[in-house]
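JOB MANIFEST
job_type = single_chain_structure
chain_count = 1
residues = 1158
[input]
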Amino acid sequence: MKIRDLRIEGFGVLSALPLHDLNEGLTVLHGPNGSGKSTLLQFIRGLFLGYSEARRLRLLPPLRGGTPGGSMVLTDPVRFTLTRHARNDLSDTLAINVSHGSPEDARRLRGTIEGLRPDLFRTLYAVGSLEAHSLGQLVDIADRDGIDLRTRRSDATWLRSQMETLQGEQSGLLSPSPQQGRIQELETERDRLRARIDVCRGEQQTRHEDHSATLRRLQEQGARLQREIDWLDQQLQTVQCDLNACHDRLWGRTSRTIRTVRRVEVEQPVAAPLVTTALPEIEELDRQIEHCRQVLRDLASSRRKLTVESASLAGAETPDDPTTFARDRAALRLLEGNLHRLDGLVEQVLDAQKIGRCLCDATQAALAGSSDSMREQVYLLCQSLNRREKESQRRMLLAQRDGVDRMELDLEARIRDLRSRRDAILTAQADTDRERIRYRSDLERVGCECDAHGRWEALAAAPVPTAVERSIVEIPEEQIVEDSTARPGDAALARELADLKDQLWLQLQGVRGRQAALIRDLARIEGRGGEFADDRALQSMQYEYSVLEQKLADSRSQWQSLALLQATLNLARRKLENEIQPPVIADASATFRRLTEERYSGFRYAPETRELYAVLSSGQQHGLSSLSRGTLDQAALSLRLALADEYARRGLRLPFIFDDVLVDTDEGRLRIAVTVLKEAAARGHQILFLTCQDHLAGLFHEMGIAVRGLHREWQPVVRGTAAEPRPVRAAEVPASIERRLTAPVMLAPSAIPAAASAPEAVSAMDEIDEPGDTISLRSQPDSPFWLQVDSPVSLIPSLGAQMGRRLGAIGIATVADLIDVDPESVDMPLSSLQVSAAQLRTWQAEGRLLCCVPGLTGRDVQLIVACGIVNPAELAEIDADVLLARALRLQDGMSPGSFEWLAPGQTFPSRESARQWIGAAHRSRTLADALDAAGWGEDDDGSDGEGDGGNGFGGDDPGPFGDDSGRGPRTLRRARRTRAGRKNRVTLRNSASRMRLRAESPGEAGGKAEPSEWRYFLQTDSPVVDAPSIGPKMAERLKELGILTVSDLIGRRAESISAGLTEAKVTARQAQDWQRQAVLMCRVPELRGHDVQILVACGVDTAEQLAGIAPATLWKQVEAFLETRDAARVLRSSTPPDLDEVTDWIRFAGHSRALRAA
């Protein structure tokens, strides 16, 4: 099927974009970064596979309006229109309209699209930068779909007679040993002996483990019993203390005296009895007597219970102690005799086994008799123990009953004493018999049978008429109150505590008995340890095994000459066999051989490891992981075209959509690659090639391939030839300006043409990956200087992240390193980087201006350098009108697509903007000052790095307006290298993560200032491939588990991840480390992947833990980790961290965010 038309109604940044009349062969679509090439690729994927991935990448809903989705016109050969719109219910139903055909054709096409495997379409046909090098996944897909990749060999039949002759000679040479079978016999005997040794070792190990396990079990039981004894003893003491306190309260008494004086006016009969003052005391005595009676009743109930329990144990008396001891000792002797008889039986059985004799019947009879005898003695010992236990309980119950008796006697004496005191008071106070009748006690009332006794008592209580006299009487009142200290329920509590004490005592005795038995068992088991040392069976078999091994080695040495001859014959046979490659490998190898200009001969597939190898022309094999990125581009293209041919032979022909899959291929091989793509199109494949590279689009155009612009008509890039700027001489500079200018380095003006530099500056922006690696150009700098010399090289506006990574691989990591490079040096591998010397000078000029001139932005310096100004001195000298004229000429002569990085509505600068740039150049600093601000400004000897001239470039440098502009950076580089070991150096390795912007204030040059906005290099919605320790291959495996983003990785259980990655041998601990690294990188700003790998390896896996640790402590942990092999794997070619960097990690942790905010 072929794509003829595309219409994007709304998808990502694309809206209402039509692409009509696409070529059925090879079509090239060109557009700069940010124009939507990758979005177009995702749109075509979405039409075929659905929009789930587009939603994950946030391409839907569209960013610029329009109906979400679009349509496509296919020919197969019937003309179809495929329409798919994103719906709120995520159904994304595909609609197929047939223009010239039948409904059956539509059903057939729908079946083809619905049966299309997503990984096949993304990896083989619709290929982006992420899948460009997925060779391993291509091999897996081919193996899954039954495509043969194995190489086979055919026998050399024409050498059969010669091989038969050699085989006969070989058989004659090898005949003695196989016929005798000596080696086979020795190997069989060796294997048998090895098996016996393994069995013996296993038995010894098992016995040792059983012995150790038994010892541990008994020791644990002993510890538990001891803890139980301690607990019971503690509980018993507690209960005893509570019981003593309860008894003290039951028997305790307290006395108190109450004295009062009352003055009352009373009317008293003359000669009336005066017992009113004694009445309260009598009533109190009556209450105490009743309380004592109640306690007696409770004690009587307890005594009855104890009597009943002791009566149930009557007859448990044991014989005298000598008789009991003699009986138990006799039982033990019988048990010991039976044990000796059993040991004898064991020895007899072992001896009989050695001679092959069976003693089963005799042994069974002897064991039965010994077993019965031992069982009887055990039961007798059990009976004796039970009887003594019951006797102990009975004695305890009798002792408790005696205690109750003593308490009853004490209470009765107490009642008698209280009764005597009552009678004495009544006798002393009552003057008449009437009063004694009136105040009789409750016992005197009980049993009364008099008819009128009660009525007479009532009459006695009635007042008797008598003469009354009025008087004021002072009545002293003194009352002695004696209270019992017992609380309500103390008697019942005492009984409960006594019962509990008895139970605890019985439990304690039982546990102590078990402990004694356990101690005996433990001593017996420990005594058996000497038996293992006496077993010499294993040593004897090991000696026999060593002798046998020596015999076998001697026999094998006799085979060496014959084996050498056999190997020679087999090698000759393999050399004579022909190799037959399957069609896919053969086609891919032929294409790969062309693309690599015969450097590689092709591919070879290893079925045992399911890996593909690249074969050099010399026959040497290389794994795909060892190939360069450019060679990987060519290998992937070769294999994709060969697999597409195979699927086409099977009836599946789909269009190719390639998004800059040749970005790392050099110029020479690009021509071959374009030719290969043309040939593939001639074979019937439709290829849509998306690119942002001007030189690649020009190459396609040069070779006769139609190139179309994504948003406008494409035109070849025409490099202008405007007049070069006139060189500036020091003599022409006014003295007032010369005093203010201290420009760092001025390259020769002729090195960069005015108009020719602009296209190169713009094309370098194509090195930025899209969409994930796009660097947003800021509209205003965060400090007076846009960049510092220790800033990452990738922040130079026209350079880009991908080219920054390439430069970092050859040691150019910072802006200072880039300025340090000599473009004309033969040591610089510019051709391998696809970078010209002029392009390198453009980047150096941008970096120099951004580091030295305050107030300039990235857009400003791109335009300034494109106008031919390469250093602050030229910018300070030029007139504003001249600069503006150059910019206008550049605007008129630039090619389409240039400077599209400008923000919407941005125009070329006005005269006022040009004046501001020139004024800023007058306030510029030297490169030496920039180095000082970054902490690189002092030599080891304490000098400031400047020579006698005071210009910051060394003693012999003529200054910023001299011709030898290359000497200053080299001098500074030598100064930096001498300071590389100083403690206060700035670490280059993660300068990109720290962005130490220096504040320009008097007296504080080079002081640290916090950035205005902290940067987090990982988000929870980032693709999982961006997480630390996760590479592209592992990301593909995780995608099969449904883990697409960092949030998916963090939210999944580590055990489930490990279970799903069994083939990759990933442990749960590794998965947990991945999760901790991802969480730490999401929460702490400015940390890179290798930073969090080091921190988690050192045990620091949370932002709070990192913020609270001391720098010296963390540095010790990091320093110890750097000595391990894991550190070398994490760092690779990066510079190890130092104390300053570790301190910055802790500072960054103070600005951490919550995970939900990521």
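[summary]
The first helix runs from residue 37 to 49.
The chain is about 55% helix and 10% strand.
exit_status = 0
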